Every structure is written in structure tokens, then in C-alpha cells.
């Protein structure tokens, strides 16, 4: 059935294939060479089994994509269609020459025909839904609220059009084979194309033309891809697999929790004796590791990270998506200089001529300088418009380290790690950071706490307890089960001190033997590390490890237990201190209290008639996956009515204090804590509950402002879950139990049962 038409189309197809393959090969080789210019990172290569399992689960199971169910399901069909129906492209090359061509061995196999029919149909329906969602969520309709704001829309349209055309061609070819009587497959194996065949002519030539269209469209896509190395919306189809395999966590977890140690040339920096050529943080694009460059290459521009980012959602210039896009585009624009193909001039150009033209420009550093040129070679990684920076300082310092971007990214990009590495360079090398944060750093170095108060004040709360609190003096006696790490906020901040006293009272009631360090405790170093000052963190961490190792001297692993109320301390002590030789079993107070309630050692007996909504602290929830224990505590309290906010658990919204933002002024856009408090107040609660001292501060401040403006009822309060539990253990009839109260104003009334609002809710 080969005629002149088939010969012409077939010849063109083969020639086009040769050109496309050559261009694709050169593109892949160039991309690999560029990525290999990154710093080494030997932590990404094992173990093979768990990493391969993660790759298969996340790709075939689409577990990250299905966090958004409808979009994830649509994308799954497109994904399976692209790889599973690749053989239909191979078959099309034969069908161009001979319309009756079938793949050897499997061409007439019924199950293959059914698979191609179903997945081909699913691909068409899936891409149509994704096209619909792109238009429904388009920036022209939603503006800044669109997750596609800042994405390259034209590239997205191109990829969607290719998928749609190829999907339609697959079904048309199959239907034309049926209408032209060129297949013997049973009718049940092609339900959709069989139905379509009823309206198509008997035309083998038309079949060859459609096959040719399928080939041309597919190869045009490949050529465009090969000529555009920063086209992540297309390249992620290939780079996502290694990016997922080489993710930071061996067990498949997201790159949250502990920050990685600072490395230079692939090795951790020894801060006591750093090498002369050690690079501190990332000051140039080539300072990133090869995995960072693979991250940038893999970004799909889907905007899930942007849609969840608390900074972007409150009017700040930080978009995790655009940070990665800017780094990617700058990397590939600077590539000729990195590879030695071009040599930069000795002097940097004058960047003062740059002027922002629209929101995209001020939010997106790369858009300031486009193309490959001498300016790209001289650009600072972080800098203002006048400095020609790739990432604006306001972008860098808006990050709260909440981890929502990393949690939602379907291809496992490690946004927080990259932002922190750039902060490290700015702090340690450039000494360029928000001035108010400098006060916090000085206080940490001089007084061991962010507030700069005397270390002796750490013991003040102990004097207010009506039972003896054991002080750790040397190695702990064997009967002491836990060291209670109080934390800076828990010992100094008045609101957090009430939580400290509530937890201490609950542990005492449950018969848990614990001790505290008192003035011997110092900051865990989390604010310094998240700020970017790794040197101060290392200094404080090593000091604390020395103290803790002395307290736990003689204890075997499994008996070196620490309980803390601060999720930031919880994360540092448990997951970052092993980097400096500190191995401890660290639990959050909600985990321990939930266990004590389950064991019957704490029994909530008094109803607390209150409507509660719980706010997930980022460093307890997303960073450490502790979602259930706080809710179990609330569920154990009789009379409580709980309701979840729309943004909760792994999609929870930050309070605004993480990433050392607690110690910086929030000068741009809406305050994050106000946004979160408004969401909570939308449920008309009596109590906004949480489990973090920083969250309590941020939510309380916003709530106070709302009350002053008449936008919140006076009885609404912010309480730690431990305070609610303690209130439920007060004797029946205690004021404030049946109808609840505000937080008590006296220091010894940590549960708030004696406040003036005891009568709330009574007739």
C-alpha cells in the first residue's frame, strides 16, 4: 500500500528524525556539561533501593501530583500517555510508508490495543482539563493570585497543543485503520476509536497523512526543546526522574526539617579551621551544587509552590517559583562563560540603566537582563535593580522557611535549601542583611538568647511553681526520664512562660520525672542558622552539645530523652545536632502529652465548652510531620468543638515567624500573622490553639489588633494545646471550665481559669 504520497512523507519523516535526534543529543550533552559545572555533592547517590522505590512511587503513583486530586489525575493520564504510548510514535513511522503497518509482535495484541485506546482517550481528556485549568486560573483573571503569574505562558500553550494534537492523532490513526479495514483486532479492544471509525472514510492515504502530522508535531516539540534548554515545562519530562531519585532524603522524605551543613567543594566546612579556598554559601550561580542546577532545570513553572507561599500570598515579592526560574534562566544564560566558550570582561557593566517595566520585572530578577551577554557574567546573585542582581534582597529576606513550597513541589525541588544557601553568603561574606536582625545575632552571641536578657532570668518561672522543679547539675540521676528543654521563648516571653508552666504541671501530675537546665541552657541556634549565620549556629550548637552530653553522661541511646515546647528547638536538637555530634531522642510536648493521655496518666475530666481551631506550626507540621498528637489532645477534652481551617496540616499557612522573620520587620504587603488570624476568625472560634511559642506570639499580636479594631470578640483567645489540657483537668465547677475564659492574667493561672471572662457564654 506504498504509493508516491507515502514515499514523500516517509522520506521527509526520516530526514526530520535525523535532524531532531542530532539536535536533541547535542542539547542533552550541553545540559549535562552545564549541570556538571556545579559543586560536587556526594550525599545523593545511595542507597539505591529506597531511592528507586521513591522514584517509582512518586512517578508512577503520582503521589505528589495527587495532592491536588483532579489536576493530578489529569496529569497522570498525560504522563502515562507520553511514555506508555511512545510505541505509537514508532508505529507512525511505519504507517507513513505503509498504512497497514503494525508493530512487530504486539501490533495486533488485544490488550495493547485496549491500553492505547484507553490511555489515548485519557490523554486527550486530561490535557483538555489542564488547558481549561490554565485558562480558568490565568493571571488575566486572577492577577497575582494566579499560580501561573510569572510563568512562561507561551511555552505552556505550546506543550499543551502538542499533547492535544498527538493524542488526537493516536485515536484518528487507530480509527482510520478500522474504517479502512486494516486491523483484525476485536471490537472490544478499541471501544473509542471503533466509535470514531463510524464517521471516518475508508482512506489509507489519510491515515498516512495523520501519521505524518503526528511525527512532525512530535519532532517539532523535540527540536524546540533541544533549542531551549531552560524550557522546564517540557524538559521536566526527562529531568524529573533524576531529580526525584537524587532528592536530599534517602527515605524519600521532602527536603525539610534539618538544614544541610555548609559545604564547599562537596565537603562540610570546618569553621574552626576553614580552608583558604572555601566558598561560604552561594554568591554566584556556579557556587550551587550540581543537584541545585538540576533542581533549576526541572522546574515545571506549575506554580504550586507560589500558590502556597505565605510571602507571595500577602503581597511580598518572593515567589519560590520565580526564584527557581530566575536561577535557571541565569544559569543557562551564563553557561558559555561557565564552560569557557566565552570570556567575561574585566569590568562589570553599568547596571544603573535598568528600569522595571511591570510587576514581572520587580518580582523576577532574571527579567532585568535577558540573553547571553557580558552583563550576565558579572551579575551578583543577590542584588537590587541598580546592582543588576538575579535575586532581589527583598525576595531573599521575605522567606519564612515554612516549607510549603517544598511540600507541594511535584518534582522535589529544594527551594528552602537554596534560599538559605544564598542567605549564608549574604550574611557571612557580604554582611548584608536586615539591620534589625543584627540585634538578634548580637544578643545570641553576648547573652545566649535573642532578647538579650540575663541568662539568670531563665529560672524565674521555676520560682512560680508550687512544686519543686529539679535542676540538672551534672549527670542526671537514673530516675529522671526527661530533660525539659525550655527554650528561650519558654523561659523569657511572658506568654510562652505560661505554656512552660502548664507543661511542667502536667508532667508533674502524670508522675513524669524531669529536670531543666535553668541558666545553663542557651539558645539552640535556630534563629542564627535560619538567618544564614552558620558560624553562630555552629558555635551555639557545639556549646549545647557539650552541655547535653554532660547531662546525659553514662546514658545509652534510647535514654537520652529531651522534651521541648518549641518546634524550632525540637527540630534543631533532634535533627540538626547530629551534624555536630549530638544524638538525642527529642520529642515535642504535644507528642509526650498525647502519649500520657493515651496511657491514662493524664485524664481530662472537666468539660471545656469552647469552639477551637488548631493552627499547625510549620516546624512541627511540615518540617517534622507531627500533625496528629496535638489534635488527639484536643479530641480528648470533653466539651470542645474543633473545626479545621481551610489551610491546615501539610497545606497549613505560616504565622510569619519562621526563617528568623520573628526578628525582622515586615515592611512589605500584608502581615502574614494577620492573614492567618483572619482565616481563623472566619470560623468564629472561641480559641485559636497552637503548639509553638512563636505562633502564640504572632497570632496573639494579630488578635489583639483585631480586638482593638472591633473585628474580633473580646473573649477569643490564643492558647497552647497544653493549656487547654490543663484547663480540662481542673476540678469540676472551677470557674471558666464549662464556658471557657481568656488566658489568665496572673502568672500562676496558666490555664486561664481565673480570668475576668469566666462567665463567657452564660445567659
Automatic annotation (TrEMBL):
Disordered as annotated region, ranges: 731-763
4Fe-4S ferredoxin-type domain mapped to chain residues: 290-320, 387-419
InterPro entries in the cross-refs: 4Fe4S_Fe-S-bd, 4Fe4S_Fe_S_CS, Cys_rich_dom, HdrC_iron-sulfur_subunit, Helical_ferredxn, NarG-like_sf
Key words, A-Z: 4Fe-4S, Iron, Iron-sulfur, Membrane, Metal-binding, Oxidoreductase, Transmembrane, Transmembrane helix
GO molecular function terms attached to this record: 4 iron, 4 sulfur cluster binding; metal ion binding; oxidoreductase activity
Residues annotated as transmembrane: 6-28, 68-90, 110-132, 157-176, 206-229
Organism superkingdom: Bacteria
UniProt name for this protein: Fe-S oxidoreductase
Amino acid at each position: 500500500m506504498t504509493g508516491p504520497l507515502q514515499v514523500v512523507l516517509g522520506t521527509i519523516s526520516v530526514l526530520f528524525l535525523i535532524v531532531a535526534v542530532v539536535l536533541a543529543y547535542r542539547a542533552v550533552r550541553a545540559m549535562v556539561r552545564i549541570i556538571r559545572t556545579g559543586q560536587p555533592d556526594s550525599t545523593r547517590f545511595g542507597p539505591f533501593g529506597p531511592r528507586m522505590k521513591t522514584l517509582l512511587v512518586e512517578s508512577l503513583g503520582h503521589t505528589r501530583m495527587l495532592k491536588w486530586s483532579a489536576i493530578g489525575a489529569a496529569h497522570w493520564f498525560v504522563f502515562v500517555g507520553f511514555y506508555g504510548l511512545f510505541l505509537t510514535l514508532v508505529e507512525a513511522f511505519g504507517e507513513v510508508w505503509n498504512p497497514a503497518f503494525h508493530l512487530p509482535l504486539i501490533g495486533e495484541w488485544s490488550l495493547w490495543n485496549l491500553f492505547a485506546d484507553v490511555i489515548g482517550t485519557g490523554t486527550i481528556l486530561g490535557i483538555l482539563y489542564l488547558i481549561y485549568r490554565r485558562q480558568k486560573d490565568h493571571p488575566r483573571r486572577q492577577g497575582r493570585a494566579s499560580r501561573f503569574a510569572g510563568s512562561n505562558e507561551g511555552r505552556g500553550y505550546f506543550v499543551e497543543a502538542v499533547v492535544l494534537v498527538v493524542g488526537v492523532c493516536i485515536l484518528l490513526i487507530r480509527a482510520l485503520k478500522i474504517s479502512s479495514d486494516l486491523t483484525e483486532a476485536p471490537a472490544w479492544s478499541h471501544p473509542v476509536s471503533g466509535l470514531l471509525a463510524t464517521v471516518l472514510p475508508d482512506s489509507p492515504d489519510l491515515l498516512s497523512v495523520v501519521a505524518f502530522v503526528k511525527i512532525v508535531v512530535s519532532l517539532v516539540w523535540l527540536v524546540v526543546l533541544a533549542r531551549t534548554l531552560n524550557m522546564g515545562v517540557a524538559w521536566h519530562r526527562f529531568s524529573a526522574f533524576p531529580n526525584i531519585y537524587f532528592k536530599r532524603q534517602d527515605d524519600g522524605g521532602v527536603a525539610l526539617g534539618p538544614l544541610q551543613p555548609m559545604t564547599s567543594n562537596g565537603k562540610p566546612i570546618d569553621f574552626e579551621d576553614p580552608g583558604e579556598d572555601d566558598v561560604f554559601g552561594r554568591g554566584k550561580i556556579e557556587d550551587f551544587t550540581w543537584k541545585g542546577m538540576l533542581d533549576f532545570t526541572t522546574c515545571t513553572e506549575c506554580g504550586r509552590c507560589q500558590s502556597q507561599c505565605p510571602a507571595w500570598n500577602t503581597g511580598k515579592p518572593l515567589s519560590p517559583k520565580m526564584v527557581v526560574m530566575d536561577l535557571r534562566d541565569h544559569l543557562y544564560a551564563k553557561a558559555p562563560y561557565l564552560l569557557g566558550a566565552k570570556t567575561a570582561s574585566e569590568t562589570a557593566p553599568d547596571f544603573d540603566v535598568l528600569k522595571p517595566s511591570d510587576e514581572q520585572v520587580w518580582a523576577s530578577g532574571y527579567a532585568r537582563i535577558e540573553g547571553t551577554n557580558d552583563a550576565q557574567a558579572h551579575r551578583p546573585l543577590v542584588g537590587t535593580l541598580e546592582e543588576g542582581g538575579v535575586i532581589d534582597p527583598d525576595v531573599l529576606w521575605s522567606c519564612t522557611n515554612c516549607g510549603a513550597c517544598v511540600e507541594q513541589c511535584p518534582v522535589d525541588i529544594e527551594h528552602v535549601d537554596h534560599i538559605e544557601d544564598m542567605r549564608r553568603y549574604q550574611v557571612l561574606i557580604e554582611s548584608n542583611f536586615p539591620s534589625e536582625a543584627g540585634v538578634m545575632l548580637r544578643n545570641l552571641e553576648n547573652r545566649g538568647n535573642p532578647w538579650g536578657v540575663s541568662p539568670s532570668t531563665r529560672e524565674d518561672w521555676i520560682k512560680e511553681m508550687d512544686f519543686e522543679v529539679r535542676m540538672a547539675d551534672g549527670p542526671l540521676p537514673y530516675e529522671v526520664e526527661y530533660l525539659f528543654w525550655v527554650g528561650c521563648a519558654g523561659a523569657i516571653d511572658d506568654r510562652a512562660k505560661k505554656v512552660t508552666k502548664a507543661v511542667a504541671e502536667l508532667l508533674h501530675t502524670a508522675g513524669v520525672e524531669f529536670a531543666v537546665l535553668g541558666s545553663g541552657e542557651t539558645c539552640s541556634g535556630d534563629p542564627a542558622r535560619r538567618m544564614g549565620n552558620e558560624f553562630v549556629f555552629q558555635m551555639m550548637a557545639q556549646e549545647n552539645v557539650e552541655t547535653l552530653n554532660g547531662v546525659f553522661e553514662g546514658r545509652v541511646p534510647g535514654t537520652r530523652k529531651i522534651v521541648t515546647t518549641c518546634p524550632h528547638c525540637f527540630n534543631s536538637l533532634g535533627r540538626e545536632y547530629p551534624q555536630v555530634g549530638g544524638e538525642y531522642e527529642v520529642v515535642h510536648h504535644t507528642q509526650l502529652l498525647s502519649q500520657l493521655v493515651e496511657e491514662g496518666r493524664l485524664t481530662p475530666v472537666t468539660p471545656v465548652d469552647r469552639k477551637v481551631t488548631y493552627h499547625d506550626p510549620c516546624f512541627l507540621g511540615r518540617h517534622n510531620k507531627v500533625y496528629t498528637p496535638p489534635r488527639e489532645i484536643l479530641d480528648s477534652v470533653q466539651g470542645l468543638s474543633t473545626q479545621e481551617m481551610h489551610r491546615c496540616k501539610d497545606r497549613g499557612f505560616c504565622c510569619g515567624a519562621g526563617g528568623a522573620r520573628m526578628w525582622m520587620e515586615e515592611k512589605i504587603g500584608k502581615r502574614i500573622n494577620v492573614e492567618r488570624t483572619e482565616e481563623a476568625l472566619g470560623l468564629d472560634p472561641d480559641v485559636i490553639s497552637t503548639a509553638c511559642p512563636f505562633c502564640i506570639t504572632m497570632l496573639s499580636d494579630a488578635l489583639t489588633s483585631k480586638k482593638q479594631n472591633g473585628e474580633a470578640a473580646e473573649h477569643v483567645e490564643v492558647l497552647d494545646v497544653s493549656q487547654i489540657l490543663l484547663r480540662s483537668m481542673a476540678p469540676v465547677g472551677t470557674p471558666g471550665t464549662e464556658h471557657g475564659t481568656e488566658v489568665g492574667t496572673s502568672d500562676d493561672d496558666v490555664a486561664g481559669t481565673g480570668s475576668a471572662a469566666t462567665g463567657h457564654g452564660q445567659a
